Amino acid sequence: MKIKTGDMMPEIKLPAVTGGDFDLSTIKGKKIMLTFYRFAQCPFCNLRIHELIKAYDKFGENFEMVAIFQAPISHLSKTMKRHNAPFTILADTKFDYFIEHSVERSWFKFLKGCALKFSRVAKATGMGFLPTELPHGYMSTIPVDVLIDENGTVQRVLYGKDTGDHIPIKDIIEFSNP
């Protein structure tokens, strides 16, 4: 079922690239941005992770980010080492939470993102964010961003219109700060 504004965010428990399992309930009481990304080496996704890291010092102190990729934890850990992200990155190898939350797969939206956001593809390519092996996950997955308040209530959700569609970083900064 799709996540909607006003929903209570259900529990999520998955392996983290830092080791062990991560449970969303451990950060209850904080504002959260939860994002369902595509596969670990996705150029759009890696560019977005890079941009979030660059903006990280502008986010509020009582704010956490959680990224979920469809990838085996070993592959995701290896791929994400280059970022050294200051936030949680999780592996949903079996695509279970993606299915549970109706994260879409669409070849049309995949191609639309590549065509309409070609400048982002070029930027990601120029930064070296290119798959070096076959994807460990679906290429046609469309991202979903969810902003959750301190009480666990969804304040905003964006089911992407294409592979590069996310809540703007300026909106995340505004949400994250008191």
Précis, in short:
This protein is α/β, with parallel strands linked by helices and 178 residues long. It has six helices and seven strands; from the N terminus they run E-E-E-H-E-H-E-H-H-H-E-E-H.
Please explain how this structure is put together.
- The mean pLDDT is 95.
- The strands form two sheets. Strands 5-4-3-6-7 form a five-stranded mixed β-sheet, covered by helices on one side. A two-stranded antiparallel ribbon has the order 1-2.
- It has six helices and seven strands; from the N terminus they run E-E-E-H-E-H-E-H-H-H-E-E-H.
- With 178 residues, the protein is of the alpha/beta class.
- The chain has a single domain, classed as Glutaredoxin, CATH 3.40.30.10.
- Strand 6 (144-148) and strand 7 form a beta hairpin.
- Helix 1 (43-55) packs across helix 5 and helix 4 packs across helix 5.
- Helix content is 30%, strand content 19%.
- The protein is globular, with a radius of gyration of 15 Å.
